[in-house]
Design a protein that fits this description.
The chain has helices spanning 4-14, 37-57, 94-109; strands at residues 18-25, 30-33, 64-69, 72-79, 82-88. With 134 residues, the protein is of the alpha+beta class. The protein has a single domain (4-109), classed as Dynein light chain 2a, cytoplasmic (Beta-Lactamase, 2-Layer Sandwich). The longest helix has 21 residues, at 37-57. The termini are far apart. 25% of the residues are buried.
Length: 134
């Protein structure tokens, strides 16, 4: 399982299109961000409100959304109770941004593989005594 800050660090390293990103829970609590705390809280609250509005206007709960402006785009992706929001410059490759955001969320949920344990050493079996010996 990746820590939230490490997930964002990896995201910003692999995705050159993402300017800023915030990981937060479904209540709006910021888990990690590339922004200062006060801006991160505002960005998370705005992204959460955008996501909730999309839910009210559509059928069912959205899993991802993109809001496009002349200055750039805002992406929001949900995986369970965790959301990630990111902003980009104009005309990003939306499919790639969604993929990168979803990958960051999934890295938080991955369970570490259990360590391989060595098989116990076999105990030597006692040799049978030949018949007729005492």
């Amino acid at each position: 399982m990746t820590e939230p800050k490490a997930a964002l660090d990896e995201l910003t390293q692999i995705s050159s299109q993402i300017d800023v990103a915030v990981l937060f829970d479904d209540k709006g609590k910021v888990l990690a961000s590339t922004l200062p705390d006060d801006r991160a809280a505002r960005f998370a609250a705005s992204a959460r409100a955008l996501f909730e509005e999309a839910q009210r206007s559509g059928e069912g709960e959205p899993m991802q959304l993109e809001a496009v402006t002349a200055a750039g785009s805002v992406f929001v992706v949900r995986e369970g109770k965790t959301l990630i929001a990111a902003s980009t410059s104009p005309e990003p490759t939306a499919g790639l941004v969604f993929y990168d955001l979803r990958s960051a969320l999934r890295s938080l949920e991955e369970k570490p593989k259990p360590k391989k344990r060595k098989a116990p050493a076999k105990k030597p079996t006692p040799k049978a005594k030949p018949r007729g010996s005492s």
